[in-house]
Write a structure and sequence with these properties.
It is built from three helices and ten strands; from the N terminus they run H-E-E-H-E-E-E-E-H-E-E-E-E. With 156 residues, the protein is of the alpha+beta class. A hairpin with a 5-residue loop joins strand 9 and strand 10. The longest helix is centred in the middle third of the chain and has 19 residues.
């Protein structure tokens, strides 16, 4: 009887664990962690908290040396909803190369994206799986930018 009870408990534990939600990773950190913990971890990786632009619903971190990289962590009750990563460059080739590199990395994890725009100056790729959605955007205009939005929202 004792063995039967232990087996039943093991099955219940396995079922409970398999029902946990999986989250996207951002820079090797799970988006399932608290927003404040993500902010602290990114600060340890060398980004500085921009208190001037942070709000009660978002933390803004920036690369203090080059001033061309920014991360915004959107949160609700310390739960991460989205992370927006933004890159600015002085010339189009750098953002195009960065976009292609990130596109190839995301394609390995998510498969081929849904491409909303696919031109030389404007590209948008949407990746989605059960963990969340990633949107990769390139705008090579007067001030070239590339952004990546990681979202915990999903339709799958």
């Amino acid at each position: 009887m004792k063995k039967l009870m232990m087996a039943a408990m093991a099955v219940i534990m396995m079922c409970a664990c398999s029902g946990e939600r999986e989250y996207l990773d951002f820079r090797g950190l799970s988006m399932g962690m608290p927003a404040k913990g993500m902010c602290d971890s990114l600060q340890q990786q060398g980004l500085a908290l921009d208190t001037l632009h942070s709000t009660s619903n978002s933390f803004v971190l920036a690369d203090t040396l080059a001033q061309n990289y920014k991360v915004t962590i959107y949160q609700q009750n310390d739960t991460i909803t989205d992370i927006l990563e933004e890159f600015a460059a002085t010339y189009n080739d750098s953002t195009s190369q960065l976009w292609q590199k990130r596109h190839d990395e995301l394609e390995k994890d998510f498969g081929w994206p849904n491409m909303k725009h696919n031109g030389d100056l404007h590209k948008e790729a949407f990746y989605e799986n059960k963990k969340g959605t990633v949107i990769l955007i390139l705008l090579n205009t007067y001030s070239p930018t590339m952004s990546v939005r990681y979202s915990t929202m999903t339709t799958k």
